[in-house]
Design goal:
About 35% of the residues lie in helices and about 15% in strands. The chain contains 13 helices and 11 strands. By secondary structure, it is an alpha/beta fold. The radius of gyration is 22 Å and the shape is globular. The chain has helices at about 15-20, 50, 65-80, 90-105, 120-130, 170-180, 195, 235-245, 250-260, 265-280, 300-305, 325-335, 380-395, and strands spanning about 85-90, 110-115, 135-140, 155-160, 185-190, 205-210, 225-230, 285-290, 315-320, 350, 370-375. The strands form 2 sheets. The protein has a 7-stranded mixed sheet with strand order 1-7-6-5-4-2-3, sandwiched between helices. The longest helix has 20 residues, at about 265-280. The chain binds pyridoxal-5'-phosphate. The site of pyridoxal-5'-phosphate (PLP) has 15 residues, from helix 4.
Length: about 400
């Protein structure tokens, strides 16, 4: 059989096709469609000469296996030609911390968007402060105005587009243009859109990270992170991963690879159902505002439309002011929507959140209780019926 048939990704293929063709070597896999899960630490060398020269495709489990290589190949095919390398980490947060440790040194200054994932902020305020890196925060809507915040020692800018609770949409190309003129690197947490809907490396980002725990895995059964870097940043990331000893477990690598095969159809459904529910919620009398950049009314809509090709199933709502017990009644009346942290799996979730106590560059004053929803793959009418029930519960508690 032709060993490359069906498994040769190319630049002319669309992303959906690359998700099928990339990361497979059917010849080496003896005809089987999927690569096996390689478990291993030791890799044996055939002779002393090769051992002395470190001459081997694989040298040690921590440095990669055929399974990790397959996943890296898939991610590179999805990120596009700017991607020079992909690092794999044991969690999404580890992707963020490994990236920051790889890029920064004592005496550096880091600019961070005020809407980033809270544990990323905790790392900056905790370990980075201890290691002599100073962090300052900026308004997610600052755009090219970020110029005034740069210092001679500003080494990097960390953004998240959109923020995964409050959904402001930073202007990444504008921020990147300023950062690059100042010799700083741009780091993007691309978990919300994935490279399928936001090719951040093509928009001026140097390092694009994902909590692959979310949509890449897609089934709420792994903790995983990825770091994709361009040619300028990859040497730093690759060195950082090696020095820190970061690697990922073989089963999680395989599940991430398997999750990616269906990423395009899953995300398309999350996008469609999420937007439909967002519009439905915007028309509810109990809802003051829906925070979803794909809605025309959203302040970040123009940027989303310019820079993204789709939206995921995660967004937030601001309720009209009601007592906490009414919000709790809504949460307790829901049946299909689970309550729990994380997102990106096949199931719908709802969780209250509050950004007031940690924002520093901007004031978070939504004017009512805030809830974040993840719209899963259930039938959208069933989800609406569930939310209907939830609002009846809320109203009954008033
Ligand atoms: C979940 C999440 C992370 C952290 O990922 P874990 O796998 O939970 O460590 C980082 N960034 C964003 C935007 C996230 O939503």
């Amino acid at each position: 059989m032709n060993s490359t048939r069906g498994n040769t990704p190319s630049d002319s293929q669309r992303s959906e096709t690359r998700l099928v063709t990339a990361g497979r070597d059917t010849g080496a896999q003896k005809g089987f469609v999927n690569p096996p899960v390689f478990r291993g630490s030791t890799v044996l060398y055939p002779n002393a000469e090769d051992l002395h020269a470190h001459r081997a495709e694989f040298t040690y489990g921590r440095h990669g296996t055929p399974t990790t290589r397959a996943l890296q190949g898939m991610l590179m095919a999805l990120e596009g030609p700017q991607c020079a390398g992909v690092g794999l980490t044991p969690s999404g947060l580890a992707a963020v911390t490994t990236t920051l440790l790889s890029v920064l040194k004592a005496g550096d200054h880091l600019l961070v968007c005020d809407n980033v994932y809270r544990p990323s902020r905790n790392f900056c305020g905790g370990m980075l402060t201890r290691y002599g890196v100073e962090t300052s925060y900026f308004d997610p809507m600052i755009g090219a105005g970020i110029e005034t915040l740069f210092r001679p020692n500003t080494r990097a800018v960390l953004v998240e587009a959109p923020g995964s609770q409050s959904f402001e949409m930073p202007d990444i190309p504008a921020i990147s243009a300023v950062a690059h003129a100042r010799g700083a690197l741009v780091i993007d947490d691309n978990t919300w859109a994935t490279p399928l809907y936001h090719r951040s490396l093509e928009q001026g980002v140097d390092i694009s990270m994902q909590a692959a725990t979310k949509y890449i895995g897609g089934h709420s059964d792994i903790m995983f992170g990825t770091i994709s870097a361009n040619a300028k940043a990859w040497p730093l990331i690759s060195e950082g991963i090696r020095l820190l000893g970061v690697c990922a477990g073989p089963d999680d690598v395989f599940l991430a690879l398997r999750g990616m095969r269906t990423l395009a159809v899953r995300l398309a459904q999350h996008y469609r159902s999420g937007l439909e529910i967002a519009r439905w919620l915007a028309a509810r009398p109990e809802v003051a505002r829906v925070l979803h950049p794909a809605l025309e009314s959203d302040p970040g809509h123009a940027i989303w439309k310019r820079d993204f090709t789709g939206a995921s199933g995660l967004f937030s709502i601001v309720l009209k002011p009601v007592p906490q017990q009414a919000v709790d009644a809504l949460l307790d009346t829901l049946n299909l929507f689970g309550m729990g942290f994380s997102w990106g799996g096949f199931e719908s979730l709802i969780i209250p959140f509050d950004c007031t106590d940690y924002r520093t560059a901007t004031k978070w004053a939504p004017g009512g209780p805030t809830l974040r929803l993840h719209i899963g793959l259930e039938n959208v009418d069933d989800l609406k019926a569930d939310l209907d029930r939830g609002f009846a519960g809320l109203n009954a508690a008033l």
